[in-house]
Write a structure and sequence with these properties.
By secondary structure, the protein is mostly helical. It has 4 domains: 83 residues, Helix Hairpins, CATH 1.10.287.1080; 30 residues, no CATH class; 82 residues, Helix Hairpins, CATH 1.10.287.1080; 46 residues. 69% of the residues lie in helices and 0% in strands. It is extended. The chain starts with 10 loop residues before the first helix and ends in a 5-residue tail after the last helix.
Length: 269
Amino acid sequence: MDFKFKNNYDISDLIEIVKILRSENGCPWDKVQTHESIRSDLIEETYEVCEGIDKDSSEMLREELGDLLLQIVFHTQIESEKGKFVFDDVCNDICKKLIERHPHVFGTVKVENEDEVLKNWDAIKKKTKKQESYSDTLESIPNTFPALIKGDKVCRRASRAGICENSAADALRAVSDEINKLADEVEKGGQNEAYQKKMGGILLKVCEADRLLKVDSEKALTYACQGFTAELKKAEEEITRDGRKLEELSEEERRGVRDRIFSGVTAIR
């Protein structure tokens, strides 16, 4: 194998390693992979990077960023083999995009604050993406995004058209009204499909409230789930010490545990 071993490697070495792994005499697994076959790996590695961020672990973040970089190089190598583009093209494109979207740094545009930076960014993006209407900007949001992330983006972009709530209090009241309507429908005995549509509307209104409260919906629910898990573990350990199991509790006892867990949930990281 024509490869020079080193004590320290850089991005050019990573590109070469992936190229070797994909070559005729490379790894049997690596050389048969496609964009589709490793698509989920890219998603998983991205979430593991987020885990490193949430845990405030530089060691974990360093490792997971490397794994994510491998996915980027791997997908690029597949395209390189087709003669479509190489890694330098990917770097060139993002460099040009950054220069174009920061005219206040690389040009003569003047900005006073970060709000003006974001406003300019959006205007340039609409122009380069040929987005001529507000609906175009919403349609450009990938359907592959997690639903809450997409909901946040839909609400933020729709707000630029001036059709969203103006205050968090109004948005929260709208959420409450929709929940009450759904509760009434459940009492009357509705259909599951109708419930799903109404729950979708409620969750989107929650995203709108989060926008106005400057809350990240995805993070909020993620941390709440972690808090719920911690509270459940605490309650279960207490019950186990008493020689009992959760499933052995009476309905009234289970309700008390449930209420205690939900009331004790805090957004932990």
